[in-house]
Write a structure and sequence with these properties.
single chain, alpha/beta, Rossmann fold, 6-stranded antiparallel beta barrel, 5-stranded parallel β-sheet, 15 helices, globular
Length: about 500
Amino acid sequence: MPISVNTPQVKLALVGVSRDCFPIDLTRTRLGKLTECCENVGLDVYSCNTIIENEGDTLAALAEVADAGANSAVIYLGNFGPEGPLSIFAEHFDGPVMACAAAEESKDTLVGGRGDAYCGMLNASYSFGLRNVPVYIPQMPVGLPDELAAKIKHFATVARIIIGVLNLKIFAFGPRPQDFYACNAPIKPLYDMGVEVMENSELDLWDLYNAVDEEDPAIAVVAKDMADELGEGNTYPDLLPKLARFELALLRFCEENLGSRSFGVFADKCWPAFEKAFGFVPCYVNSRLALRGIPVACEVDMYGALSEYFCQLASDNPATLLDINNTVPTDMLGGVDLKGATTEDLFMGFHCGNTPSSCMKNCSMKYQLIMNRLIEDPSNAPDITRGTLDGQIKPGPTTFFRLQGNAESQLVSYVCEGNILDIDPMSFGGIGVFAIPNFARFYRHVLIGKRFPHHGAVAFNHCGKALFDAVKFLGVDDINVPLTSSMRYQGENPFDILC
C-alpha cells in the first residue's frame, strides 16, 4: 500500500553535459534515448533542454530545472563532459544528485560517435571531491540507456529517502522511561544529518489531549473508522472515543507545528505514567498513524522514529518498530523452511501492539500484559492498559534497520534482509518470527559489540540496497550488514569456531 501523505514526491531532472571538443549532439541524442527509457520504467522525469558545456550553461540549467519543479537530478555524461561546470551544478542544485555516463553503442560509431564518458566519469568524481559535494554514483555508472534507467529508478528511491529525511521534524514527548537508557538520543547527530527536533514534556501531551473537546464531532468519525478497521477485532468499543481523541490531538499537533519542515514523525512516552493519566495505552493509535505514513516510536525513541521513516521511504509502505526480543524454541518450527537462516539466526520481533493492521496476518485489540502486571490488579479485568493491536505479524520478505547516535554521539547503522516466517508465535503483543541469514554472529559482534539498542525498524519488503545507499549518501560511514561464515567481524576471535 504505497504512502502518499507525509512522503516526498520525487521529480527527477535529467541534465546532459558535453565537453566542448565533442559534438554536443552526441549528448543530446543520447539524452533523448535515456529519457525515453526512464519513462518506460515509470519514472516522472524532466529532460533539461540546456546541455551543460560551460558555467553559463550551468546557471541556465539550474534555473530551468528549478522552474520545472525538480527536486532531484541526474547528471548524464553523454560524452566526456566538463568536470568543472557539472560539479558546480551538483554543488548548487537543491536536492540529491546522481551521476552516470553513456557507454558506446556500436563498433560502427567508434570514430565520429565515440564519447569517452568512461574517462570523463573519473574526472567528474575527482571534481565532486574537490568541492565536497555528495553525489550518488551507482556500482556500474557507465551504461546504455536501458541499463542506466534501472539505476536511475533505484536512485529515485534513494532520493525519496534523502529528501524526506532532510525535510523531517521529530516530535518527542517526554523523557526516556527509567531503565531504557538504550533509547537515549544524543541530539547533535540528528542536527548534523539535517533533521529537526522538537522536544516536549508529557504534560504538553496531556494538555494537547484535553484541548480536543470531548464533544468534537471528529471524534465519532475517527472512532467509526477505527471500528471499521478492527472489524471482529473490536473487542473494546467503549475505548474507541478516547483513542480517537488522542489520535486527533497528535495529528493536529503535527499539522500545526511542522514549521520550516514538510514531514513529521513522533517519539512518545508511552508508559508507565501515561496509562494512569490517559486511561489507555497508545499502541493502537501509534499503529494507525504509521499506517497513514506518520511513524510513532515507543519509549521516546527518536532514532527509532527516524529509522521507521527511513524504512517507510525505502519501501514505500508502512513500517513498524520492534524489539529484537526473544529466541525461538525449536519445538515450534515443525520443519518450516528457514529461508537460508539457521535455528540460531531466528528471533522474535515484538512490541506491545504498534504495528499497522496492514502489516499483520491477524490482529485484534487487546491489553498490554506487561503493563497490566505492573500497574493494574491482574485479578481484575484490564482497564487502563487496554489499547494494543495484538496478533501475528504477516509473513514475507523484510528488512531490519537501525540508524543510531551512539554513546559517543557518532552515527552508526545496520541493515539486514531476511524473512518473517509463517509461524504462530504463540505469545502476546504484535509479534512475529524473523529469519535473517547469518544473524546469530551479527547479533553478537555488531548489535552487542557496537552497542545498538533493542529497537529496530522493520520494512515489509527487501529494501536494504536503498537504505544502505541513502545512509551512505547522508554521510554515515559505519554501516553494518551480516557477514557470511567465511568472513570475520572486527575483533571476532578466529579461534572460536563455535562463534
